Amino acid sequence: MASTNGPEAEFSDPERIRLIQTLKDKMGEIQPTAWACLWLSDIEKLRGAAGGWPTALMAMAFHNMECDTKLAQAWAQRKRAPVSTASTPQRVPTPQASATPIRPPQAQPSSAQSSPALSPLADGRRGQKRTVSGRPISTPLQPIALGSPSANQQFSPSGGRSKSQRERCYQRDQMKCVLTKAGDPIEVAHIYPFSLQIELRPASQQSGTSFWTMLRMFWSDERVDAWFNALFPHGTETCQNLIGLCPNAHAYWGKAYFALKPIQMSDDKKRLDIEFHWLSSNPYAERVDLAQVPSLAITDHGPNETRLFDVQTLEVISSGQQICLTTDDPELRPLPNMKLLEMQWYLHRVTAMSGAGDLPDDFFHQSDDEDDVGVDFEDDQGRGDTESDYEWDTDRETWARS
């Protein structure tokens, strides 16, 4: 039976099961990412899908999400997006709460469509050329209207990585893995992936198949806006989007072998409680029975007999274990953002359910021309360095302790 508060909490909801069965009667088998998203979606979105969305339009949208957007693969960093470099390194500002919430650009509904959430997908496909297999080739999609004038604010990061923000994360987490309490070597992991920073740029939103448009198919505008506002305009390179992990925990995190559920942040922002959950993985399949109930929960280990231990108590880290993160300075070294952790809680589960976490990087035949090189922002001494994604994310240098 599904847990009432763990990774399978949504799967025991009778209304969700009934709505999923209604969709199953219409569509049968669908792509694995769409299957995972529907089982984890906000219930009002699921009601809309089951009650009114045209079947052909949904099928097209789900195909786009799997083959074009590659939502789960992108979250698992199995889909590399080009990263632009800047000639002059930039400093990353300390994120401050915005007085005016920003809404991510979203598609303009078509009056001819009965499904506003999906209409941009249909509009964007008109006039596209197709290959012999019937899949579309890369043809620019029609521009979509931005959600509000404020969404055109300048996106401040240049696309590079920030060593100064990484150092703040090291200091906040006291040069230890927040899960195992192990010391060096420690790596800094992104909550919202660095490789998806390009999806925050207005120019990247000009298509009905953008990453953020796809999220709106399954989760409410309020929820998606909150996720977006936690990143915009400063992007991925802020301390609140970083977390310190030992190398094996970082590797398991990248494969969605576990997820962290946000519980609560203290009023003074100095303490954050999270809950650890191992996630079982599924082999990737092109199609999945829509009514197949997902299985995610496992107790004391991850896929492939992976385990983590608290080095201070020598106890195995198990699902449901609560972990406390602290900071001495919530302004300079803020704790991980609750909304970003919530986004991770949903999308790590989507990744595990869809089988995207264990896919090889070239599974979907990405272009060899994609650029994996990132440029660091200028550090506090005014130096800018260039590193590859792998070198930055797996940096095992022992940093000098103060």
Low-confidence stretches: 80-101, 107-153, 364-402
Give the helix level as a range of percent: 25-40%
> What characterizes the major β-sheet?
4 strands, antiparallel
Discrete helix count: 12
β-strand number: 11
Distance between the termini: 50 Å
Strand coverage percent: 5-15%
Number of domains: 1
Secondary-structure content class = alpha+beta
Q: Secondary-structure element order, as H and E?
A: HEHHHHHEHEHHEHEEEEEHEEH
Characterize the structure shown.
Pfam families: HNH_2. This is HNH nuclease domain-containing protein. InterPro entries: HNH_nuc (IPR003615). The protein has about 400 residues and is of the alpha+beta class. The protein has one domain (about 10-85, about 115-125, about 160-360, about 375-395). Helix content is about 30%, strand content about 10%. Strands 5, 6, 8 and 9 form a four-stranded antiparallel β-sheet that branches. Strands 2-10-11 form a three-stranded mixed β-sheet. Helix 1 (about 15-25) packs parallel to helix 3 and helix 2 (about 30-40) crosses helix 11. It starts with 13 loop residues before the first helix and ends in a 9-residue tail after the last helix.
